[in-house]
Automatic annotation (TrEMBL), chain A:
GO terms for molecular function: guanyl-nucleotide exchange factor activity; molecular adaptor activity. It comes from the Bacteria. GO terms for biological process: positive regulation of TOR signaling. Transmembrane segments: none annotated. Residues 10-100 form the Roadblock/LAMTOR2 domain. InterPro entries: LAMTOR2-like, Roadblock/LAMTOR2_dom. Gene3D superfamilies: Dynein light chain 2a, cytoplasmic (3.30.450.30). It comes from Desulforapulum autotrophicum (strain ATCC 43914 / DSM 3382 / VKM B-1955 / HRM2) (Desulfobacterium autotrophicum). This is MglB.
Automatic annotation (TrEMBL), chain B:
PANTHER family: ATP/GTP-BINDING PROTEIN-RELATED, GLIDING MOTILITY PROTEIN MGLA. It holds the Pfam family Ras. InterPro entries: Gliding_Motility_GTPase, P-loop_NTPase, Small_GTPase. Gene3D superfamilies: P-loop containing nucleotide triphosphate hydrolases. This is MglA. It comes from the Bacteria. One of its GO terms (molecular function) is GTP binding.
Length: 131, 201
């Protein structure tokens, strides 16, 4: 269980690295399909509970596929749509960061920002001084 | 493991309906969805095959109100029952907090019930979860078929086959008519909440 300071720091990392870059929705969740933090730009609605369940299922299925082809994991997934796209990235063995963005932002920019956010979140998760 | 968010004061609990194919797991969730429409925030999510059988899982979240200042959301999942989908069943069990084992009371399904329970035990082991420490409720489903002269197993036989060692609460049920669907749900929620209360309070 994460404490309040850790959750605040995770929210801060998502706000500064991802939401500030113009992403539509960001969900930080565990592999069991539970949301830990969710952020949106206030412009569109998303059923984040069902979304997280499907995202966990999707990620787990792809993980199983990786094993079948002899990979230990596929740590990143990307779904491209006409108007919006979804980027999934593993943060650690138990958690996943899902970012949704419009065609106004390039995939390269999202990947860069997601990498920064994941580093920041992992620092929060491993920093025992945050209480 | 239940996700407890101390910042948003939310608890998310994952309950999985497990059992052999065509045993009535999805029907249980459909009945709950219909009965508790007011408390259910979203549409039930079902990933089905073309012939309407569960491909990945059904998903139904609903709020059970506040407990000690925490908003508790119960997330109900089913697994696909068909034998060929074991990898998927294992994936759905990840992070499970409580299980309803839906057995089919038809005599012809006796071996499949036992096989499914054994496989569930093995699948839980892959996550280092011990079935004997897990909140579990048995549901002996389709008792209504007894009225239409379909040969069904007596509850004593099902208890002996499936519950003689586990010794968990068991219900005779009819998911299609709703018989004992809600008592099964209430029981698994109450014993699952009891099992996580040390983490919560």
């Amino acid at each position: 269980m994460l404490n309040q300071s850790q959750l605040d720091a995770i929210d801060h990392a998502i706000e500064t690295h991802l939401m500030a870059a113009g992403l539509d929705h960001v969900i930080y969740m565990d592999m069991g399909g539970n949301t830990i933090a969710k952020h949106d730009n206030g412009k569109s609605r998303l059923d984040s509970t069902a979304f997280a369940a499907l995202a966990a299922g999707n990620f787990a299925a792809v993980d199983a596929m990786a094993k079948l082809v002899g990979e230990s994991e596929f740590s990143l997934l990307f779904h491209k749509g006409e108007r919006s796209s979804i980027h999934f990235s593993k943060v650690n063995n138990d958690t996943l960061l899902v970012s949704m963005f419009s065609k106004d932002i390039s995939l390269g920019m999202v990947r860069l920002k997601v990498t920064e956010a994941i580093k920041a979140i992992n620092r929060v998760l491993t920093d025992t001084t945050i209480v | 493991m239940a996700l407890i968010n101390v910042k948003t004061k939310e608890v998310q609990i994952k309950i999985v309906y497990y059992g052999p194919g065509r045993g009535g797991k999805t029907t249980n969730l459909e009945y709950i969805n219909h009965t508790y429409r007011d408390q259910i925030k979203t549409e039930m999510v079902s990933l089905k095959t073309h012939d309407d059988r569960t491909l990945f899982f059904d998903f139904l979240p609903f709020d059970v109100g506040r407990i000690k200042g925490f908003d508790v959301t119960i997330q109900l999942y089913t697994v696909p029952g068909q034998v060929k989908y074991n990898a998927t069943r294992r994936l759905v069990l990840r992070g499970v907090d409580g299980i309803v084992f839906v057995a089919d009371v038809q005599k012809a399904q006796r071996a499949k019930n036992i096989e499914s329970l054994n496989q569930m035990y093995e699948n839980l082991e892959t996550y280092n979860l011990d079935l004997f420490k897990m909140p579990v409720v048995m549901q002996y489903n389709k008792v209504d078929l007894g009225k239409s002269n379909t040969p069904i197993l007596a509850s004593e036989i099902l208890q002996r086959d499936l519950n003689s060692i586990l010794r968990v609460p068991a219900f005779e049920a009819s998911a299609i008519t709703g018989g004992n669907v809600i008592p099964t749900l209430k029981k698994i929620i109450s014993i699952t909440l009891a099992s996580i209360q040390d983490q919560l309070f």
